[in-house]
Design brief:
Blueprint lengths: L1 H29 L5 H24 L5 H12 L2 H13 L3 H29 L2
Helix pairs in contact: 1-2, 1-3, 2-3, 2-5, 4-5
Length: 125
């Protein structure tokens, strides 16, 4: 149990650091008007989760799941930040943007996960 907890903690620190770097880069590139950084992290994190779950299943690497899935990807993805972004847009009166962002984030993230699983299953067949 302690070993898994340490894996999650280390992975979480790495994932959160990666999220910070991506957020900074996207914010510099696209500006602060719309939460593009959170959207990018959620879609990329979902895609990577799809790659990871297929890879772990095919290679029998379940012992790496606490570090990679819960730790790194859990620290990298930002669903709580996504929720706050939706609320912020809504409270600023940007209701259409808030709804589009909420629906787009979910659809694109789930779609990215399925796409990654499909790609990995084809690649690893």
């Amino acid at each position: 149990m302690l070993g898994s907890l340490l894996q999650v903690a280390l992975g979480g620190a790495l994932g959160a650091s990666a999220r910070y770097l991506v957020n900074t880069a996207v914010m510099r590139a696209l500006g602060p008007g719309f939460p593009w950084a959170t959207l990018a992290v959620n879609v990329a994190g979902s895609f990577l989760m799809g790659v990871l779950v297929v890879w772990l299943a095919k290679k029998g690497g379940q012992q790496l799941a606490p570090f990679l899935a819960t730790g790194i990807l859990g620290g990298f993805t930002t669903f709580s930040a996504y929720s706050l972004d939706v609320a912020t847009l809504w409270e600023r009166g940007e209701v259409v943007q808030a709804m589009g962002y909420a629906l787009g984030s979910v659809a694109l993230s789930v779609g990215a996960l399925f796409a990654a699983m499909w790609l990995m299953r084809g690649w690893m067949a």
